[in-house]
Amino acid sequence: MAPHKAPDSSRRSDRSRRAIYDAALALVGESGYRRTTIEGIAARAGVGKQTIYRWWPSKAAVLMEAFLDLAARAAEEANPQAGGAAPQAGAAEYGIPDTGDLAADLKLVLRATVDELNDPLMEAPTRALTAEGIVDAKLGAEFVEKLLDPQLALYVTRLRAAQEAGQLRPDADPRIALELLIAPLTHRWLLRTLPLTHAYADTIVDYALGGLAPRS
User: Fold this and answer.
1) pLDDT at 121
2) Position 89 confidence tier, pLDDT thresholds 50, 70, 90
3) DSSP the chain
4) pLDDT score of 205 more than 90
5) Which comes out higher in pLDDT, residue 126 or 167?
């Protein structure tokens, strides 16, 4: 008779955690942040609500961790060489490429951002959490701290390297410079003013690096 193997609790926990992540993201995309509840997440995931409360203190914590996990998976698919490193501070493998061609590197990253924002899996929960973060200052601050700031830091690092290489004005503020790149994408995506495309991303880079004044 084959020896009986004890259940692998870590694998079971991983499956439950993944089911909770997926349920939370699906519900916030379908119903919005405020209508999403711990009870609803538990029911969709097929777990008891006490399982969720044992791992997370609140609905916001569940959704934030689920969204960070989603972002990590998207980063892994976009950059498998990074070994799935999430876009967070301290992830040395993850960053904006530095080929020596600043425009090409920025266009590559902005095109990937366009793809993420247009991805139905990412779009619905991103819109829901972004909208809620506008009215809920605490959630908005957590969203910025845990997700946005680590990503913005990657732009700062790349732009400072470009300054050191003489590709950007030495007095340019990298934090303002990066906003010239990502703010137009965010504006068009949030307000749905026009389609979000790779061509638009490329043009943003050209305008940001080249300026709008006539060239002599």
Assistant:
1) 78
2) very low
3) -PPPPPP-HHHHHHHHHHHHHHHHHHHHHHH-TTT--HHHHHHHHTS-HHHHHHH-SSHHHHHHHHHHHHHHHHHHHH-GGGTT--SSTT-TT-S---SS-HHHHHHHHHHHHHHHHH-HHHHHHHHHHHHHHHH-HHHHHHHIIIIIHHHHHHHHHHHHHHHHTTSS-TT--HHHHHHHHHHHHHHHHHHT-S---HHHHHHHHHHHHH-SSPP-
4) yes
5) 167
What's residue 216's pLDDT? 60
Provide the whole-model pTM: 0.77
